Amino acid sequence: MPKISAHGLSRSFGRGSARIAALGPVELDVEEGEFVCLVGPSGCGKSTLLRIAAGLLRPSAGELELRTDVSHPAAMIFQDYGIYDWKTVLANVRFGLDVQRVPRRAADARARAWLERLGLAEFAAAYPSALSGGMRQRVAIARALAVEPEVLLMDEPFAALDAQLRTLLQDELLALTQTAGATTLLITHSLEEALVLGDRVLVMSARPGRIIAERRPPFARPRTGAVRSDPRFTALKDELWELLRDEVTEVHAVRDTGTVRGATA
């Protein structure tokens, strides 16, 4: 059985003449251990789909199911880090374990192990305000992986970072997820990020977002960031951009004319 399944999934916002169809219908299966990346133009419903998967939004129609064990729930990493300013780095990473009522000594040990792995051990007692953006995102990644999730949901986790740091964290995440083996669904605007990380790249249309294409990067696992220099990488990136071009153009046409695709009269 797929770890993530969506059938006839759609979501609308507003009512009456102001109702906007934001997403769908979407059909999606993500197999156990698979890393799937969703790319698409701004406002196409990518984050809406992920928030439905995380249980933060309800669908307007259809269904989305996550199949996880109670002891290994889904974990989500947000674009804005989602860590707590009033908790220390150690307490942030331990948070999910505390929710699961893991004994404090074992929870501390597991949290410290992830901090060590992500190069944050010396900041265990620090607060997020003392950290850079990249370090905060490392804390968010450590917190998510510390609970040993079966499903990992990521919403533009590196969007706020500069290009160099983004590349470094992509490579770190690639190594971590290949070791952890969690089923992963990543939302991103970056075609490069999707090709480096994903087993599959799904292209979404302009709003209302639907899956209009699928590509499988031809790079065996375990892989590293070195695939960026492979000629096939550049060729597939160009192919994906051609698929996206019309959808991005549609978004800008809507902004210029005020005509919203998916609006109801």
Automatic annotation (TrEMBL):
InterPro entries: AAA+_ATPase, ABC_transporter-like_ATP-bd, ABC_transporter-like_CS, ABC_transporter_ATP-bind, P-loop_NTPase. Keywords: ATP-binding, Nucleotide-binding, Transport. This is Nitrate ABC transporter ATP-binding protein. GO terms for molecular function: ATP binding; ATP hydrolysis activity. Residues 4-231 form the ABC transporter domain.
